[in-house]
Amino acid sequence: MEISQRIKLERQTLKWTQEELADKIFVSKRTISNWETGRTVPDIASVLCLAKVFHVSLDDLLLEDSTVVNEIKRREEIVNLSWVYFIGPVLTAILLIVMMYSLPEMSNTGAVSFISAASLTNFFTLCVFKGKIAQLKGNEEKFKKELKQMKILGIVTIILACLFTIALHFI
User: Fold this and answer.
1) pTM
2) Residue 97 vs residues 31, 53, 125, 159: alpha-carbon distances, Å
3) What DSSP state is assigned to residue 149?
4) Whole-angstrom Cα distance, residue 71 to residue 59?
């Protein structure tokens, strides 16, 4: 039995309305409705509260329905992805600081190279992050299509940066 059906069954067994259950576990009536219809699943804190008010064990509530466990794992993985946010900006900041302090000795070509490297670090981070999110959402095919487009855009950007560097060299 899925957790949505289990919540509804337990609530009806106790002859509670959705609003009464919502008041007992400190969520809205709409949240209970969403859980019972299967549109959303409760987070771990809500599952603990449900087990307590229904007087059932977590095993009874969770083990019959792996969707809740999978949803909790998915949310945890998304939280663990937060480190990816920082890779691109940190690398960009380092490259730009190095560029700032070495600017007087650096030629236009060197400056363009540093700026290109900074852009590529951000682009790489974006691709990794977007890929992980697509994987967690189950949209891997859509991401693969977008990745092809991003590769083309990246190659065009690199070619334009090279042409710009060459043009600066002859000016």
Assistant:
1) 0.45
2) 48, 56, 19, 25
3) H
4) 16
What CA–CA distance (Å, rounded) separates 100 from 115?
11
DSSP 14: T
* C-alpha pair distances (Å), 72 with each of 16, 66, 148: 27, 10, 31
Residues constituting the chain = 171
Higher per-residue pLDDT: 8 or 73: 8
User: Helix, strand or coil for residue 106?
Assistant: coil
pLDDT higher than 90, residue 95:
no
Contact yes or no for 133/81 (Cβ under 8 A): yes
**DSSP for 28-73, written as a single string:** -HHHHHHHHHTSS---HHHHHHHHHHHT--HHHHHTT-HHHHHHHH
The predicted model gives 51-61 an average pLDDT of 86
* Predicted pLDDT of residue 103: 67
